[in-house]
Amino acid sequence: MSRIAAITFIMSIGFLRTPGFAAWPPPSGLQGNVPMYGYTIQHVYPHDPAAFTQGLQYVDGVLYEGTGLNGKSSIRKVELASGTVLQKRDVAAEYFGEGVVVFKSDLIELTWQSHVAFVYDRATFQPKKRFSYAGEGWGLTHNGTNLIMSDGSDELRVLDPLTFAEKRRIKVTAAGAPLRNLNELEYVKGEIFANVWTTDYVARIAPDTGRVAGYIDLRGLLTPAERAATDVLNGIAYDAAGDRLFVTGKLWPKLFEVKLVRKGG
Fold first, then answer.
1. Structural contact between residues 205 and 191, judged by C-beta atoms closer than 8 angstroms
2. What is the mean pLDDT of the chain?
3. Pairing mode, if any, of strands 36-46 and 212-217?
4. Which domains does the chain have, with CATH numbers?
5. Are 44 and 254 in contact (CB under 8 A)?
6. Residue 163 backbone dihedrals phi, psi, to 5 degrees
7. How far apart, in whole angstroms, are the C-alpha atoms of residue 233 and residue 230?
8. What pLDDT was estimated at residue 9?
9. Which of 256, 257, 252, 254 is closest to 53 using CA atoms?
């Protein structure tokens, strides 16, 4: 089953609790000892409703976005305030684009099931090289030294940015149980923020232990009418200089700047 078909199936039957994995969806307050955060909306920005967002990052005043679907995948540089696409490079139709990350002068893009990552010149979007990897590619971020990649499982791969060689894996757990379906990633203040696929939740992960330090409940960002015409929440970007957190989703018409608020105290 494709990820697109799986979304429809899972949403139709409701979220399941799989033995041996973290209970889902988490309760409105706490799952075990995992804190829950809500949000307040600080600003709303336009977002291309045709963009099947797979990766998002804010660097030097602009957004870098990777979009997916075969025949529609692209890498983009986007103006935050207007949502205008300032620069774009389409990806060959045989590839389903996934997560992207800017690392120094490079823009690196994963593909879903093609086992290849493309490296582009960040300024020109011209291809520079490619890497291969086993399994699927989902989300991508970096901690300033290494790349961090998700593959839809409960593990995150720590990769050498120059060779793409795997250094280690981070086993992600919530209240002692593995948390899978980790998708788009962003490194925020020493934590890894990860969209949990098919949900409106983001997990806050401690990179040293893999423990989920909190969930962010992002339900309700779009109106029911808007949500009916979109796909899942997917896309986290952080402006370190301005301490601003941005979130959006696949085919979403809006991008939100949000401030996190601890639930229950």
1. yes
2. 90
3. parallel
4. 32-262 (2.120.10.30)
5. yes
6. -120, -15
7. 9
8. 40
9. 252
Amino acid present at 113: Q
Task: Report d(CA 234, CA 134) in Å as an integer.
Answer: 23
pLDDT in tens, 113-163: 999 999 999 999 999 999 999 999 999 999 999 999 999 999 999 999 999
224's enclosing H/E stretch is helix 224-228
Residue type, 73: S
Alpha helix stretches (DSSP H) within 1-103: 3-13
Q: Report CA-CA distances (Å) from 185 to 20, 119, 129.
A: 24, 18, 23
**Residue 96 structure tokens:** 């389903």
Cα 35 off chain centre by: 20
Helix, strand or coil, per DSSP, at residue 228: helix
Helix (H) or strand (E) holding 226: helix 224-228
Ramachandran angles phi, psi of 170, nearest 5°: -110, 115
Instruction: Tell me the residue type at 67.
Output: T
Residues sharing a CB contact under 8 Å with residue 193, sequence separation 6 or more, in sequence order = 185, 186, 187, 202, 203, 204, 205, 216, 236, 238
